[in-house]
Every structure is written in structure tokens, then in C-alpha cells.
Queue: 4 jobs
Job 1
Amino acid sequence: MEAYLIISKNTPSFYKKVEELVSSQNIQKEKFCKIIEREKEKQFIAIEEVKTIKKFLARKNTRGTKKIVLIPEARFLREDAQNTLLKTIEDLSQNSVIAFGVPNKEFLLQTVISRCAVVYANESVENTFQFQDLAKEALKIKGEGEILDFFYNNPILYEKRDNALDFINCIEYLIFTEKIESQKVASNICKYKELLVNSNVSLRLLLENIFLT
């Protein structure tokens, strides 16, 4: 049985760590790899998609190669979906690998964490959510003018890239754990997060757009 919980700040670092973990194993990625992702415009990964994992792993493999299931954005797994996965993790055969990617362990249930080997994409990955109070405040704001004033008055959020990323991760965490109804913000984070990680866009403008567009 091989189940990994990979702590990574972004999807590229998750995949890089997966490559390190499975490179020495007999895996044909093209035919025996299943990636579970959140559908566009959906706030969470559908439980129906999670249920397909068991069927995928149960499918006969006559070549003897390992099968791997990747969930790069496991922070979007709701509690019911995580509970559904528990039995699957416990019943993993020696020819199966499953890897979850999260920016912080707190996104997953302790029962899931305890069944996985926890590894870090790099030494500075673990996120302490230093802007949690500001994130809670931002989620309560409704008006466009108030949003603009909020970011004008809190330049520390876009002072550097790591601050902006911490703030966004905290927003996602609060939406997930506190069941905050914010479909627009969740969708915009999905849309803009890669820009934050991989481009030189204005951090302030990007954060404002997450709440305004």
C-alpha cells in the first residue's frame, strides 16, 4: 500500500514531487494514471468523481505495472468525499499508489492524514496562515468600494508573492472548513492562482480581481 500526502504550495511542485516518488517504480503514466480534478466552475471535487477511483483501481492490469491516482488539489475534497476515500486507501494493493496534494495538512481529515506518508515538496512549504484574520474580514465584504478600500489599507497582503499566496490559501481553507458560500471567490481563485505562482502580474490587482470579477 502506498498513499502519500504531499504538502505543496502549487500544482507544479506537487507533480514534481510525484515524479520523484514514482520514478523508480514500474508505472505507465499514460494508461495507468488517473487524475482527479475539480470541474470548472465547481466549488468542490464531486463525490461522484471520487467514487470512480475504486473502479479504476479494481480494473485488471495484465501487464503488472502499478496504477497511480493523483488528486493535486485535494483541498477541494469535502468531508463526505474524504470519508468515501478512507476504505479505498485502506484497501490499496501493492500495485496501487494514491497521492494527495494540499498546501497545508489541515485541509484533510485526521483519519485521512493518518493513513498517508506525509512528504514535503520543499522545506518552506508548510503554511501557517498568518493572514487568517484578514481573510475572514475579506470574506465578509460585499461592496466593490469596500473591497478596493480593504486592499488599499492592507498592502502587506501584496507586499510579496508569498504573502499573497498565504492569503489566498487561507481564503480557500476558510471557504472549505467553515462552509462559506462564496462560489465566485472560489472560482476566481481557481482561475487566477496559477498566474500568482507563475507570472509577474500585479499582486494587488490579482487579489482585487478574485473578489470583484
Job 2
Amino acid sequence: MLDKATVEMIAQDHYPGKYLDTLLFSDEFRGRIGRNAYLEMHDLLEIVRWKAQRALGWAKRNDAPTVESVTKWAFAAPSPCFAVHALTYLIGVGVRMATAILTVYDPEKYTVMDVRANATLLSLGLLKDRDLDDCRTYGPYLEACKGEAGRLGVSLRTLDKCLWVLNGKTPDEFLHPEL
């Protein structure tokens, strides 16, 4: 079982992606995306670099008008599943990358669906094992995260960073590996 103080400490002290995380979740970066209600090509590439740099070559194959129109539609989609599905139209964007894009766009509404965080949710009994490459998986994943973040009184982003760091371990197993 997670508790608020441990989640906040693990997210703050052990999450390795602080530089890009700070950039992508800055008021300036998110403010521009929010005002536009779409991503520009360079925004997409920054998010891809943060989530999975190995996909950068693929993402560069998109053209700017497609990135803008697809992300505009996704950001206005009526459900998380539709938003994720729309974003997978972009080259180099699968389901998990799509959730990263949505998270940067609105971290209070979305969270990143990630193999490491999923392993933690499974080990805590908060989620059933599902195919992370199926956009229909995102709804239950997101609801599990929203429920746990609400129970703990932390943001979705803080919870996500903690779940990612734990990578399937309990907080005790992570913080005290000698036990």
C-alpha cells in the first residue's frame, strides 16, 4: 500500500527525468500548447525525446500540418480512448506515446501509461494485466491512477513518477533492497 509522504518522496528524490520533465511541464511550454490547443512539430519531438528517444527518428517523418491537425482533434476528443486512438495516426506514436502526449497537454486529466508504472499497479493489485498497446486499456489504467492519486491526495504526475521509479516493487522493496 502506498502512502502520500512516500509517494511524494520517491517522485521527488528518485525520478531521473527531471530536466525534460521540468521543461515539458513548465508554464511556458504547456501554456503555448494550451493556447494553441495543438502541438507544433518541435513540441511533438520534445515529448517523444522525453518518453522514448528511440522513437525520435520515426516521429520526425510526420509533417507539421498533420501533427497540428491530429493533435487538435485528439485534444478535443470526447474520451481518453478516442484521444489516444487519434494520436496513433502519427508516425512513431503508439498507445503509450499517445498517453505521454496527452499528459503533457493536460497532466490533471491524463497520465502516462508505461510498462514500469503498470508493473507497479499490478503488484499493488490496483489493475488487472492488460495489453498496453491497445487504446481500450487506457481508460481502466487512467481510472486506477486517478483513484489512487485521489486516495493519496497527490497529483497524477506525482503518482506516475513514483510508479515509474518503483517498477513493480513495493516502496519497502525499493527503499530497502537489503531486506
Job 3
Amino acid sequence: MPNVNINPDDVMIKLRGLKKIFGSQDVLLDVNLDIRRGETMVIIGQSGSGKSVILKHMIGLLQPDEGEVSVDGITISTPKYFDARTIRRKMGMLFQMGALFDSMDTGENIAFALEILDKSSKEIKDTTDYLLDLVGLRDRRNLFPYELSGGEQQRGAIARALANKPDVFIADEPTGNLDSKSAMQIIKIIKGLNDQGRTIIVVTHESYLDNITRRIIRLRDGQIEKDEINQHPIDISKEEFVK
């Protein structure tokens, strides 16, 4: 996922001295990271390395014990000083396993995300149709999550995460437990989102993803071990990807 026209001074998300403790366990230790607008970044680490905890700080679901988090220039690490809804509308989050609502069909899952934003009936229909087309699920709109494959569930969850037209798209283990074909479909959709100008953050334990993005953050035991630039990422539009 090559990045183009990235302004190194235009920081979308900034983490400074981030520390988080759960009980007696240090989960994050002095994490410092700048994520630039329009950038695609993969954060790689094994289970327990603190990957998902970092994401939850980025979207304001967790507050650090020490340090600061800012999104688009707004400090969000002190709850009373920011509007959580305003910040979260800048972000679309793809959770592990998709997390679609079992009681709703695919179209309803997407429409629900628009309803809570007080969109008109026409805008809800038009946007739902557009997003279903974007992820290739127009013919699956009336199916419930249990009737979809794992890859289709993930694509449906991506569509729902895009309902608020976010500037930042965050994916937590987006290809976990998917076959190679489904994984490639998800990666191509995410690449397309970056091509539209969105900032992309992918968290994974699967090291093969470092071949397709330019910037790789390697996390170990709650600390950034390496911040690397891949000078020759694979162009997935031209090459076959093997998981």
C-alpha cells in the first residue's frame, strides 16, 4: 500500500509518552508515535504486545495513566477537554471478527450506523447502497451475519465503519482467520480507502502484511521496538498475494 503526497508535518494522530497499566502489568511503556494524514501504517506485534490497547487510546475508549494522545490537533487523553462524538466521527473502526449485529441483516447493519447520525431516509438508502457496492455486497444486503462467510462479514463491517465518512480508518486484525482470497479482498478494499486520501492504521500479528505497506511499527512488550520504512512495498494491483 504505497503512500503518496504525504506531508511529514501534517500529523493526524500523535502519541506522546503513552503509559498504561492494568493491575500490576505494564501494558504500554513510553509509546511515542506520529501518524501523518493520508499515511498507511501497519502495527505488528504478537498477542499481548499492546496493539489493541494503542488503538483504544487512539479512539478515546481508554485513557492513558501517563502521556498524551491528540487527534487532528485535539487532545483526547483528558476526557473533560474533548467531545468524544466529534472525535469518533473522524474515525472508522473495524473490530476483530467484524462485530456485526446478529439481529440485523447486512443492509440494516450499515443503515443503523447512519440512523444514529440522524441522516435522512434518502441519505441512509443512498449511502447504504453506495457502501454495499464499494465492498461488493449488494447481493448480500438481506442476509444476516450467520449467513455470510468470514470474508463477507469483514467486508460488511468495513462498510458500516465507513458510514460516517471518516478521515481515519482503523482495522484490528482485519485478515485474521480468513483464507488467502478473502484476505486479499479485504486488503484491496483498505488500499482503495487510502487511495481516497484516508489515513489507514492496521494492527495485526501477521508479519506478511509488512510486505504491502510503506511504514511498519513493530511492537514488543508494550514498547515500539522498530519504526521501519519499506522502500519497496508490493503493488497488490499487479502481483498475486500469498498469505
Job 4
Amino acid sequence: MITAVKRIRKMLVPCLMSIGSLAYASQNPANPLLNAVSNDSVKVFDRQGNQLSDEVTVKIHRQGNFLRTSLQNDTDKPLQIKEVVLLDIEHGWPGESAFYGEGFTMLSQTAGRLAEMRDVGKYTDKRHYRLAAPTGFRTVYGMMRVTPPDSETTVLGFTSCRRFVGQFDISRTNLRVVIDTEGLTLKPQEQWELEEFAVFTGSDADIMLKQLAQRLSVHHPRLAWPQLPTGWCSWYCFGPKVTAQNIADNINQFKQHLPQIRYIQIDDGYQPWMGDWLEPKEAFGGNVKEVIAQSRKH
């Protein structure tokens, strides 16, 4: 335990002047990573990649394991904000640390060790969806988890997603905690409330993930449905190679074995090019409107 604390002290100096015990970090707001976020650490960049300093004011609000930031345009001119970087540090975690990070969609995750991270799933953010990542980094979204050998687990997450996406750029040695503001325009004297950031450290990852989920439900309560919708989406089985026959075969199976299926989603893959949603490609082997009409008959 002492060794782990020393390692954390080393990795965050000079960001932190003092560090509390990690043993109770999931209950103790004195979490070193969370405390490392300060007005000195937060960097704001415009759409051209220029850092903004005097033009904006960043306010930080802390509540236990949670941290919220706001951003205000102090000028009389509109500013296009590319991103807000909460942290950009050498993390100090060993390369053998177990790692897991969520993808931009549920179709892709990152797992493995910090020294050898690997894709989970075929439709990755970088290769399939062409989402950019900084050179030398992997980008994961919403939540990441790190467990050094013989040490406690640290869970980092964004517990709100009202307007912006929170992401983590991670490498063998460095960590960036970023809110992607998409180059949107911050009007003169306008203020944005940014997404909430959370850090938990402890020995039970399940408990920490539960705490993260509970906080998410505070910001984004579950929608009430009189009856839970049940359905099937073609993408999860067939991806971009779906055919009209695949749809028909599955509907026949649902009719025989899963009559509770109420919704069928013909997802991306039937069209010749991204955006040509009204035309099927030749390999799809059918007319989309006819496939939909036949589906409804069942």
C-alpha cells in the first residue's frame, strides 16, 4: 500500500502538493487524480488548436468523488471551442496494469494491459468509424478502468452527457481527460456547464462501477415505458453485409421461436453509400420498402 501511494505521489508531482490515502478513495474526496484538476491544469483550445487563456474563465465545482466545470467567454467576440482538457499528465501506472475502456458505441471497447492495449469487437472507433485519436494515444469514451499489479483499481468516468462527449486519451505513459466541445460557438459572455467527471479508487471494481451508474442515473433518469420494447437490430449480426434474405430468415425464426419480438431495425449496411438511405445496394438483394412491408405482415 505504501509503495502504491509513493507511485501516485511521483506521477502527479508537480500537479499535487499533497495526497491523501488511497485506501478509502472511493469514499474519500481527497482522490489524487480528481484533485489534480485545477485552474492550472485545465486547458481550453479553439477550433484552430490555439490555447485560450485570458479569453475564457473556467470554474471548478467539487462534490466528493465528482467534479463539474463551467466555461465562460469573457470577450465580446464569439469563440469556437474545440475541446477542454481537464488533465494532461504522466499517469505513472505500470505497463502491466490491466486496462479496460468503453468505445464511442457499444460495438467497440479497449482491453488488455497498458503496455499492450487491444481492440474488442470488429467495428472499432478508429478503423471503422474513423474517429481520430491523438498521435501515440488510444481514445476511449465515457469510462475507463486501470488496475496495477497488486494494487487497487481506479475507475474514471463522465457521469453526465447532456451536451458534450467526455473522453480519455491513454498511452503507456500519459493520460488526457478531455471534453470534446466539437468546435461549437461560445457566444460573448455566454457560459457552458460542462460534463461531470468522477474518479473512484478501491479494491472492489463492481462497487465503484455501481456508484458510477447510480450517478449517471441522477443526471439521466431512466425513461418510463408502459411496456419494455423488445426488438432485433440487423447490425449486431450482419454488420454492413446484411441482405434481404437475412432479414426474412430472422423474422421467420422470431415468428416461430420468439414471438415477443416487436421491432425490427434494418441498420446500416443495406445502402450503397453512407447517406444513401433511400436506395439499396445490389448485394442487399431486395427492395427496402418491400422488405419492410413483408416484415410488418408478420
